[in-house]
Design brief:
- The structure is a single chain.
- The chain is mainly alpha-helical.
- It has helices spanning 9-17, 22-33, 53-64, 67-81, 107-116, 119-122, 139-158, 165-179, 188-201, 207-222, 235-244, and strands at 3-5, 90-92, 95-97, 126-127, 130-132.
- The strands form two sheets. A three-stranded parallel sheet has the order 1-2-4. Strands 3-5 form a two-stranded parallel ribbon.
- Helix 1 (9-17) runs antiparallel to helix 2.
- The longest helix is centred in the middle third of the chain and has 20 residues, at 139-158.
Length: 247
C-alpha cells in the first residue's frame, strides 16, 4: 500500500500570505482544480481560502513542528503492514479545517464527509487526514489522525463503500483494530445500550440516523437534524471499546 506524503502546507502558506481578496480565492481554486474547473488536482478542499490570520499562524506552527514529516513516517508504518497491495501511490495531504471564529466549515458534517465519503479522493489516489483550528496540534495528534485516515483508505480499497449503519461501524472498528488503543474504563451499561441500538438499526441507511449514531444528539440538534437517542456515548467511542474488548 504505497502511501506517501503529499506536501500541502508550503502551498497553503503562500496562499495565506496573500491579502484576503478575489485573487487569493482564484489562487486557491487554481491549486485545487488547475485548469479543469470540475476536478481536483491537489486535495485541499478542507481549507478555507478566505481564512483569517489564525489559520496562517496554525500552518506556521505545523511547519515548525514538522507535521508533514510526522505524516511521512506514519505512511511508512502503514506501508509495512499492507505491502502486498499493487496500486498506484496514494498521496497523503494534511487538511486544516477552520472551525474557529465564525468560519464557514461545520466541524461535524465536514468530519463525517472526510471520514466516510472517500470515493472522490480514493479514485484520484488521495488521502486527506483532517485536523482543526480549534485543536492543540502536537506530534501525537498528527500521527494518530494520519494513521486513522490511511486505515480508512485501506478499508475503502478492500471493501464496498459503507451503505448501512453496520457498514460504517465495521469501517471504524477496522480502523481501531489497526490503532489498537487500550480502553481501561468505560460505562458498560451505556456500551450495552449502544450495542442493542446498533443491533436494532444495523440495516438503516438514513443519513440523519447514521450521523446521529457517530456524533450524538447534541451535534444533531446543533444542525437541526432529528435525534435518535444517542446521548452519552458516540459511535466512535463505541468502536474503540468494541475493538479493545477483542484484544
Amino acid at each position: 500500500m504505497p502511501f506517501e506524503l503529499l506536501p500541502i502546507l508550503p502551498t497553503m502558506a503562500k496562499i495565506y500570505e496573500m491579502p484576503i481578496s478575489r485573487d487569493r480565492f482564484e489562487a486557491y481554486l487554481f491549486k485545487l482544480q488547475g485548469n479543469t474547473k470540475d476536478d481536483m488536482i491537489m486535495p485541499i478542499a478542507g481549507y478555507n481560502p478566505m481564512a483569517k490570520a489564525h489559520v496562517a499562524e496554525k500552518i506556521q506552527h505545523l511547519r515548525e513542528m514538522g507535521a508533514e514529516q510526522i505524516i511521512a513516517e506514519a505512511a511508512k508504518e502503514v506501508n509495512k503492514r499492507f505491502a502486498t497491495q499493487d496500486i498506484p501511490p496514494i498521496g497523503v495531504g494534511l487538511n486544516l479545517g477552520d472551525n474557529v471564529g465564525g468560519a464557514w466549515t461545520n466541524r461535524f458534517t465536514t468530519d463525517f464527509e472526510s471520514k466516510f465519503r472517500l470515493n472522490a479522493l480514493v479514485k484520484r489516489n488521495f488521502c486527506t487526514p483532517y485536523i482543526w483550528t480549534s485543536e492543540a496540534h502536537n506530534e501525537v495528534l498528527i500521527r494518530q489522525r494520519s494513521l486513522e485516515y490511511m486505515f480508512r483508505t485501506v478499508y475503502w480499497l478492500e471493501n464496498n463503500p459503507p451503505v448501512q449503519l453496520q457498514d460504517y461501524v465495521d469501517m471504524e472498528v477496522f480502523v481501531q483494530s489497526q490503532l489498537k488503543e487500550e480502553v481501561r474504563e468505560y460505562d458498560q451499561e451505556l456500551f450495552e445500550l449502544v450495542e442493542l441500538y446498533l443491533k436494532d438499526h444495523q440495516k438503516e441507511e438514513e443519513y440523519a440516523l447514521i450521523f446521529n449514531f457517530f456524533y450524538g444528539d447534541q451535534a444533531s440538534e446543533s444542525l437541526g437534524f432529528p435525534t435518535f437517542g444517542m446521548d452519552g456515548m458516540t459511535g466512535f467511542e463505541y468502536a474503540v471499546i468494541k475493538t479493545s474488548l477483542s484484544f
